[in-house]
Amino acid sequence: MFYRNGRWRNYSIFSVRHNLKNMKPHEHLIPPKAHVYLDGPKSRGFELLFAMRVFWQFIHGFRRLHFIGPCITIFGSARFGEEHEYYRAAREFGKRIAQMGFVTITGGGPGIMEAANRGAFETGGVTVGCNIQLPFEQKPNPFTNYTITFEHFFVRKVLLTKYSYAFIIMPGGFGTMDEFFETLTLVQTTTITQFPLVLFGKEYYKDLWEMLEHMAQKGTIARKDLSLVLLTDDVDEAMHHIRTYIKQNYKIVPRRRSWWLFEKR
Questions:
Q1: For the domain that residue 198 is a member of, what is the CATH number?
Q2: How far is CA 147 from CA 91, 100, 199, 211, in A?
Q3: Whole-angstrom distance, CA of residue 247 vs CA of residue 111
Q4: What pLDDT sits at residue 44?
Q5: What is the pLDDT at residue 198?
Q6: Number of domains in the chain
Q7: Would you give the distance in Å from CA 3 to the centre of its chain?
Q8: What whole-number distance in Å separates Cα of residue 52 and Cα of residue 95?
């Protein structure tokens, strides 16, 4: 039920869905997929098949990345071209990560993601792209050694987080903010280890940082939570921060492969 034209109107989920189907393509803000899995209860069979598809995406991702080695994830916008300063910075980050011997992992698309993969790829490092099926913008960039395409954002975010020992958040939009705040929440709640989080772009993130300061002032976050994030414009400072943390806390030990799981040596 909702209020419209001075009257309360009673609409079921079926009539709303019918109206969406009858919309013309240009009326959609984002072109629709073949189905939307959050549009209400389905049959038990449908829900079971959906859960199995999600499970298969996880298993596929786990098998592809289990032996990939320690990663550093770079998040950022798909909309920056190669002449942009943030593209050049992301490319330099990819190069530095490869020189450290780490794998560069991104969302696998254009813009910042392409730049980071490209910097590592051109330096001889290993690069991974965790792509997503979208009706626009997103297509795999050519600078990845391994590409995995996911149907659902939440599966993709798990894989972008699971194998990484540091996170670099370049300037970006809604998707980048989603990835940043989810990762920050996981670190803040100790759901994952307190890995380094670098927020790159002081001018771009100035208002966001002021909002975080405001939240700390109002008590909705702790003041010490701000120390979980390094805000910087300096690639050298960011990489020093990451390198110091990793050297103090970790050493690289190769994983053993199991023949009975058909894992290639």
A1: 3.40.50.450
A2: 18, 22, 25, 36
A3: 30
A4: 87
A5: 98
A6: 1
A7: 38
A8: 38
Q: Report yes or no on 65 lying in a domain.
A: yes
Please report whether residue 4 resides in a domain.
Answer: no
Alpha carbons 255 and 26: distance in angstroms, whole number: 50
C-alpha span between 149 and 264 (Å, rounded): 22
Distance CA 152, CA 158 (A): 11
Whether 62 is in a domain gets the answer yes
- Please tell me the distance from the alpha carbon of residue 175 to that of residue 109, in angstroms, as a whole number: 12
For residues 198 and 230, the answer to whether their CB atoms sit within 8 Å is yes
Contacts of 16 (CB under 8 A, 6+ apart): none
| Distance (Å, whole) CA 216 – CA 228 | 13
- Mind listing the pLDDT tens digit for each residue in 224-251? 999 999 999 999 999 999 999 988 887 6
More confident residue, 247 or 148: 148
Check: CB of residue 31 under 8 Å from CB of residue 25. Answer: yes
d(CA 236, CA 99): 13
Q: What is the pLDDT of residue 1?
A: 45
Asked if residue 24 is part of any domain, the answer here is: no
Q: For residue 79, what are the domain limits?
A: 54-249
Report the greatest alpha carbon distance in the chain: 70
pTM: 0.81
What pLDDT digit, counting tens, does each position of 42-65 carry?
788 888 998 999 999 999 999 999
Q: Where do we find the tokens 């499970």? A: 55
Amino acid present at 239: M
Contact 201, 90 (CB under 8 A): no
